[in-house]
Amino acid sequence: MSGSREAELDLAAHLVSEAILWQRRSSALRVTSDQQERWFRQLDHQVRVLDRERQKFAAVVNQSDTYVFVTDLAGTVRWVNRTMSLRTPPGGSAEWVGRACRDVCSGFGSGGPHGDGAACASCPVARSLASNDSVHHEFHGNFEGKPRTLYLSALPIKGVDGRPQEVLVLMQDLTDLQTLRDSEERYRVVTQAASDGIVTVDENGVMIFVNEAMQRIFGYAPEELIGRRLTQLMPPSLIERYTAEFQAELKSGAHRKSWEGVKLPAHHKDGHEIIVEMSFGEFVKDGKRLFTGVMRDITERQRAEQALKHAQEQLRIVVSNAPIALFAIDREGRYTLSEGRGLATLGLAAGERVGLSAFEVYANTPQALNNFKRALAGEEFRDVVDIREFAFETSYTPLRDENGTVTGMTGVATDVTERRRLESQLRQSQKMEAVGRLAGGVAHDFNNLLTTILGYSTLLLQRHASGDEPDRRLVEIRRAAERAAGLTRQLLAFSRRQVVEPRVSDLNRVVGEIEEMLRRLIGEDIDFSFTPAASPALVMADPGQLEQVLMNLVVNARDAMPRGGQLSVEIAQADLDAPLAQGDVTLRPGPCIALSVRDTGVGMNAETLAHIFEPFFTSKSFGQGTGLGLAIVYGIVQQCGGHIMAESAPGTGATFTIHFPLATGSVESETRAPDAKTRSGTETLLLVEDEAPVRSLAHEMLVREGYTVLQAASGPEALAVAGRKAAPIDLVITDVVMPGMSGGELVAHLREGRPRLRVLYISGYSDDAIVRHGVTSADSAFLQKPFSYESFVAKVREVLDRPAAPADPSEPRRDAA
Question: Are 298 and 277 in contact (CB under 8 A)?
Answer without folding.
Answer: yes
